[in-house]
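User: I'm curious whether this sequence folds into something compact or stays loose and floppy. Could you predict its structure so I can see for myself?
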Amino acid sequence: MQPFLSEDFLLTTPTARALYHDHAAKQPILDYHCHIDPREIYEDRRFDDLSQLWLGGDHYKWRLLRANGVEEKYVTGDGDGWEKFQRFAAVLPRAIGNPMVHWCHLELKNYFGWEGFLCEDTAREVWEFCNEKLRNDPDFTARGFIRRSNVEMIGTTDDPCDSLEWHEKLAADESFPEKVCPTFRPDKVLNLHKPGFADYIRKLEVVAGFPLHAVEDIKRALSDRITHFAAHRCRAADHGLDYVSFRRLPESALNAVFQKVLSGEVPTVEESEAWQTELLLHCAVEYARRGLVMQLHYSCLRNPNSRAFAALGPDTGFDCIVLSDSGALAKLLDELEKADSLPRTILYSLNSGDNTFLDTLIGSFQGPGIPGKLQHGSAWWFNDNKAGMTEHLTSLANQSLLGNFVGMLTDSRSFLSYVRHEYFRRILCDLLGSWMENGEYPNSMALLGGLVEDICYNNARRYFNL
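Assistant: Here's the prediction. I'll summarize afterward.
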């Protein structure tokens, strides 16, 4: 029987162990998509206790607590830190098969040096042991966690209206050489149909410095903001879409829709889709011009629990996977390809049933000059677990060039989530190692080790021009 979370955790063959320890584990981390607040990095935030560090903003943990019937007071409510942590510790042993069991214990082991099993009986010990380090150890801060994780680059997620003040300060701070790059995320401009659109347009108008009366004005404002981001080390843009749409309307009709929504009327689905299509195409052309990567995340049903949404608002752990029409995505890419304006693009579907579709779709739009110009992004959100990652990697290998894959990201708000890179790397090495051991790949550690290093680090470094 293997011990829990040993040095060879998830590595079931000698080849897998050699690939991980000699190649993958040594590679720096390029966390090119996350939701870390750059201000917290610049100010080198120190956390009050383990509950604040671990449970604040973590949807994965919130969902487990709710699944065990825990009151919202001890999830996102005003329960004190110890009470929240105690309840989470009681829940974790019941989460067998869930990646949270592995992630949490990797975090406790790698950062705090605690190697037991968190449960109700050990909760007080873990709480006091970790809180003592958080209070007194100078390395237990935002920057300390980043440095100890061997992170070279962080891609935050930023609104077009952001001044990027904290990115400017980080870029000028010689004591922190790690790159913190903003990512352009214009969802609020594209989501014509969502509450708050009119208020957001007024905010964008102030930042743009000119009136926004028509689609052409919005496009100009977006172009200016993309230029602003590009001047602040931006390497990528990201779009969080419920689903990808492709619907065209003439500009005059879009202007009418725009004014309709600003006056308080509700747009039709067709009008919203046409608005999103027009602005997404415009942004994509701008990304291509500036050499930025475009990321599209889709197939997410947001806030299906209307009562919870009314009480807690968005991004509180109530989203789920949804099926969506894939044909619109192909049309969107083709429209850009016809105009020779398709940027480097990473596609993420929350529905793992789209794996083979995406792997074959990206093959339809590859071309000379950029290896892996179109990417099937890493197993995302509900899929970044052992089964999801293995399915994603296997499908990508079957249909495309796994050796060109740009690897893992955290997509997280936590400074401890870099263990997800380790988790991914162990799963990757175990899969590739099994193929070599089965005689499905030549017995060459030079070849396979080089591929592992590329997937873990080198490919992303080239792809994002780092």
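Summary: DSSP finds 20 helices and ten strands in the chain. The radius of gyration is 23 Å.
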